[in-house]
Amino acid sequence: MNAKVSATIAVIITGAVLLYGVADFPDFGDPTSPANAGVEGGAPSASLHFINESYKETKVPNLVTSVLADYRGYDTMFETVVIFAAGLAIFVILRNLRSDDPLPEPLPATEDRFIDGDHQRIIVGTTCRIAIPLVQIFALYVVAHGHHSPGGGFQGGVMLGASFILVALGGNLRDALARLGEDTFMRLASLGILIYAAFGLVPQFLGRNFLDYGVLEKIFLTDGPEMARSHSMLGVEVGVALTVMSIMFAIFANLSSRGEMRGGL
Amino acid sequence: MAEFLWKTIGHHFNFWVYIVLLMLGLWATIAKNNLVKKLMGLSIFQSAIILLYVSIGTKEGATIPILDHHGHIPSESHHADVGPEIAAHGVANPLPHVLMLTAIVVGVATLGVALSLVQAIYRDFGTVEEDELLREIKSLHPDG
Amino acid sequence: MILSLNIVLLVFLVVAAVISLGVKDLLSGSMVLGIYGFLICLLWAEMGAVDVAFTEAAVGAGVSTVLFVATILNTKRRSTD
């Protein structure tokens, strides 16, 4: 049988089973569904605790940030480790370290390639030079202001990485690597995870659990454990942003230059 | 009849569309010949699942999960003048948002790994079409 | 949650997914995938998931499109199906 026909049959069966299962779901947007309010007669949903108590416990108005960096700190820490591992995997798969190899022959200038005239370079390059500082300042604002508005380490880190990708796209990869070299970004990626782990280990040395930020009030000299948690979340977000920024740029630099780290698109 | 249809489909319309997206992505992952097309299908599959998770946390008439600067639920929400159990219904559930936020960023990192594998395959075999790849591998190892 | 906006976005979402999987030019396909990412971002903003929408706008519509384009320009632009 043709592979496409059998794939279609398998997908239709899967879809039919899923559509049948969806009929038992709670209504879309129902505030009293089990995920939002807990099951009847059982314990209330954890999200009700986050909504009602997390401001009292952490002094962070953005509930997503407080759950991400404090209540689910382990989860976020090892998600960051996964991103770091993905960066290492790309390094192992694609990176060609024998720098004396000749550059791969440039791809033929057919209609498949972008038009690469000089005037086009000037327009794109100038626009990028104007846009990049704004993008970076906004990214730093997103990292620093994640407590009060949407944003945080992941979003700000991706935007910082995108600003370096923009340097490479508007000019060339060599300019971008001169600003953020290969050894620099791999060191920054490790440093980000180490910052996060330090915020976990210091409470342990002070006699509490891993990532229990409340005890850090002795170091931050705050009024109570709530503000210590708030400050620690900012430190953790900075660590996440460093790792995400470095790995996003590492992925682009490897993919665009076929692992050569020269030439580029 | 219209009322019955609204009861069964209207409240689950979003979920039905997510399943259609999931089927599209799954079909492309299995049946498409080009490896980059397979990865596009995979990211559509992934986003359908993330859409489903975020939809579970939505509440009718709720605001975004950011409180005001004194820790109160914003007063525009029409549940604000009742007890804390019901007032919490005026704010969207933050837990699925947290889980899916990290999943999206990890998703793009793993997409980068997949694309680097595609480039490594192109470097070694000179093609990213699945049937040509299988023929190439068979000619390299003719005895199986 | 606005029901009419919801329905319009979901219809566009399916159309964008079908187009991005259907076209044989992979560069156009990845661009339409970027549009798909932005539509999802709008859908999440409309559901009240602002942090997720922000992440998707930066990641799904921005970085992943760039990664697809980088790979396509280093391999082949045409697909047989």
Task: Give a topology summary.
The complex is a heterotrimer of chains A (265), B (144) and C (81).
Chain A: H1 3-22, H2 34-37, H3 46-58, H4 63-71, H5 73-94, H6 118-144, H7 153-170, H8 173-179, H9 182-205, H10 217-220, H11 225-256
Helix pairs in contact in A: 3-4, 4-5, 4-11, 5-9, 5-11, 6-7, 7-8, 7-11, 9-11
Chain B: H1 2-8, H2 13-31, H3 35-56, H4 84-87, H5 94-125, H6 130-140
Helix pairs in contact in B: 2-3, 3-5
Chain C: H1 3-22, H2 26-47, H3 50-74
Helix pairs in contact in C: 1-2, 2-3
Key features of this structure:
B: 144 residues; mainly alpha; 0% strand; C: mainly alpha; 3 helices; flat
End-to-end distance of chain A, in Å?
A: 42 Å
Discrete helix count of chain B: 6
Whole-number tally of structural domains of chain B: 1
How far apart lie the N and C ends of chain B? 60 Å
- Class from secondary-structure proportions of chain A: mainly alpha
Annotated CATH topology of chain B: Helix Hairpins
Low-confidence stretches of chain A: 108-113
Number of E-state strands of chain A: 0
Portion in strands of chain A = under 5%
Number of domains of chain A: 1
Task: Count interface residues per chain for the largest interface.
Answer: A-B, 66 and 58 residues
Mean of residue pLDDT values of chain A: 83
Assembly state: heterotrimer
Structure, explained:
- Chain A is mainly alpha-helical.
- Chain A has one domain (62-97, 116-265).
- Helices cover 68% and strands 0% of the residues of chain A.
- Chain A is globular and about 70 Å long.
- The model of chain A is unreliable at 108-113 (pLDDT under 50).
- With 144 residues, chain B is mostly helical.
- Chain B is 66% helix and 0% strand.
- The mean pLDDT of chain B is 83.
- Chain C is flat.
- The N and C termini of chain C lie far apart (38 Å).
- Classes of the chains: A mainly alpha (265), B mainly alpha (144), C mainly alpha (81).
- Chains in contact: A-B, A-C, B-C.
- Chains A and B meet through helix 1, helix 2, helix 3, helix 4 and helix 5 of A and helix 2, helix 4 and helix 5 of B.
